[in-house]
Amino acid sequence: MTTASTPVLRGKDQTVLRHEGTSLTLRREDEEIRIPLRAVRDLVPDGRALTVELHAPTGATPATHRIEGVNQASVDLFATTVGRELSRLPEPDPSLDGATLVTTRSLRPAAPAEDLPQIGTARKARALGWILLALVPGVGATVATSVLVVRAGEPGALPLSVVLGIVAVLLNLCSGMLTERIFQMWVLPRRGITVMAVRNNSYGKTGFYEYTDLSGMTYNHTRQAYASEIEICYHPDNPAENVGVYPVFTRVVITFGALLLWGVTLGLCTLMILLGGYA
C-alpha cells in the first residue's frame, strides 16, 4: 500500500509547517524553526490547529510549537503520516530535552540602507567609469554624426542620428552593467565569503534564495535555477552585495558575451560616424 504524501500546513499569519526528511520545519514571518523528529514526543491535532509537543525530562513541562488556522483534514493527515514516522524511531532517553535539539533561524529583512556598510571607493569609481563609457561614445558619435550631416547639407538626417545615439548609449549602459556583474563573478569567489543559499519558494525556474551572514542577518539572492541549495558569495564588508558561484566555463562564456556586446556598440558608433561622413 502506498503511503499518502504528507501535506504542507499553511496557517494564519503566514505560518507554514512542513515535514522534510528527518525534521519538521515551522516557518513564521520572521523566523524558521527546525525541529528534528527525534525531538518530537507527539503531534496533537485540535480541530484546525496542530501542536508539536517535544520530549522533556521526567517531571519537566514539555516545550510546544503550534500552528493554527489550518484545514482540519490536512491537520489530521499530517498528524497521521508524521505520527507513523515517529512510531518508527527508537525510544528516547528519559532525560532527553527535545528543546535543545531545535534550531531557530532569523528571517528578519536586511538592515535599512543607512545601516549597511558604505559601498567601497573602488566600486564607486568603477560605476562612474561605466557611466562615462556609456555616455561618451554614444554622445560623441551623435554629435560627430550631426555635425557631418549638417555640413553635408542633410539636416533631415538629424533625427536618425539622435535615435541611433540613444540606442548606442543604452547598449553601452547594458554592456557596463553586464561587465560589472562579470567582474564580481570573477573577483568575489576569491575575495568574498562563500556560503550555501537555501531556496524559499517551491515552484518555478526562478529561485528566491536566502543566506545569513555572520551577524545573523538574512539576505536574498535570485537565480534561474531549480536546486534547493546553491553556492553564492557575498562581500564581507557589505553582505547584501552577492553573486552566484559559477564554473569557469560559464564565466568565460558570459565574459565573451559581454565583449561581443561591447563590439556591437562600438560598431554602431563607428557606423554612425561613417554614415555621417558619406552624407
Question: Could you characterize what this model shows?
Answer:
The protein has 279 residues and is an alpha+beta fold. It has two domains: 9-106, PH-domain like (Roll), CATH 2.30.29.30; 115-278, no CATH class. Helix content is 40%, strand content 27%. It contains four helices and 13 strands. The chain has helices at 72-87, 121-151, 158-191, 248-278, and strands at 9-10, 16-20, 23-27, 31-36, 40-46, 49-54, 64-67, 103-106, 193-199, 206-212, 218-224, 229-235, 238-244. The strands form three sheets. A five-stranded antiparallel β-sheet has the order 1-2-3-4-8. Strand 10 and strand 11 form a beta hairpin. Helix 2 (121-151) packs antiparallel against helix 3, helix 2 (121-151) packs parallel to helix 4 (248-278) and helix 3 packs antiparallel against helix 4 (248-278). The relative contact order is 0.11. Mean pLDDT is 80; it is low at 113-119.
Which properties best describe this structure?
about 280 residues; 2 domains; alpha+beta; single chain; elongated; about 25% strand
Structure in a nutshell:
With 279 residues, the chain is of the alpha+beta class. It has two domains: 9-106, PH-domain like, CATH 2.30.29; 115-278, no CATH class.
- Gyration radius from CA atoms, angstroms: 29 Å
Overall 3D form: elongated
First-residue to last-residue Cα separation? 82 Å
Q: What low-confidence regions span 5 or more consecutive residues with pLDDT below 50? A: 113-119
Major sheet size, sense and barrel closure = 5 strands, antiparallel
**Fraction of helical residues:** 40-55%
Look at the helices and sheets and give the structural class.
alpha+beta
Structure annotation, total helices: 4
Oligomer: single chain
Can you count the beta strands?
A: 13
Give the rounded overall mean pLDDT: 80
Strand order of the largest sheet: 1-2-3-4-8
Number of domains: 2
